[in-house]
What does this fold into?
Amino acid sequence: LEFRRVLFRSALVRRSRGSSLRWMQEPGSTPVPSRVVSATAAEACARVAGEIHGLLAASARAGEPTVLGLATGGTMVGVYSALVERLAGEPVDLSRVTTFNLDEYLGLAEGDPRSFRSFMAEHLFGPAGFAPERCHFPDAALAAEQSGLAGEAYQALIARHGGLDLQLLGIGRNGHVAFNEPGTPEAASTRVVPLHEHTRADAAPSFGGLEHVPTHAITMGLLEIRAARRLRLLAFGEAKAAAIHAALVAPVDPACPASLLRNHADLEVLLDGAAASALGA
Ligand code: PGA
It folds into this structure.
């Protein structure tokens, strides 16, 4: 184990940047995620919001489209509020931005406030002024009828837009990314999945009890996620420390789906001190 740690470290160069610590990849080595450990979650959210704002502004200036992969969950609330704030301070033409969310629950009525579409409307699309017709979600209604077709349609739609420029990701306590739960193979594409018991338990408070939490969802697969040009994974708090250790340090294993993203060519993992606490100095 110690040997692995030394090997892992030797591929990295540690740099200091303000109150953030950054480990960067040396040119020519196997891709290793860069880790940014910020003093606070708010600082990490501002950093990624700034990157997205920069991407949107550069594309708008060049008259190019931008394709964003978006995520839901408590971690993303701070990211979206920071992005809304940046866009209010420095407005950008969003008319050529297309978004694809990672996942959606099956079995909720259209407009259900607990749907991921509602979450996005509340936290980002409404306040920032994204055109709703350019904001895509996997088709939960179609998925309930014809799951294979819904997965293929979403995959094809992403491909038709030229792929994802940047994908935001959270991570579950069990190492899931989107609803790719433990055991998901690397080649899994967009599909209907049963929800893991931990995932349903985490969602129970917002549904008013475990029995009301949907049992299935449609999720982008690791295949589409890995194909994004940039991956930005955020995790805050002690409860995520073990999952972050499994994702970044322990051997790559489908038991921690996030570990299957580790060798992506442009993965940045943004953490606060608590989420980074199991990684060692
Ligand atoms: P959270 O969820 O941001 O609410 O912690 C992350 C996830 O489960 O992917």
About this structure: Residues 73-75, 170-172 surround 2-phosphoglycolic acid (CB under 6 Å).
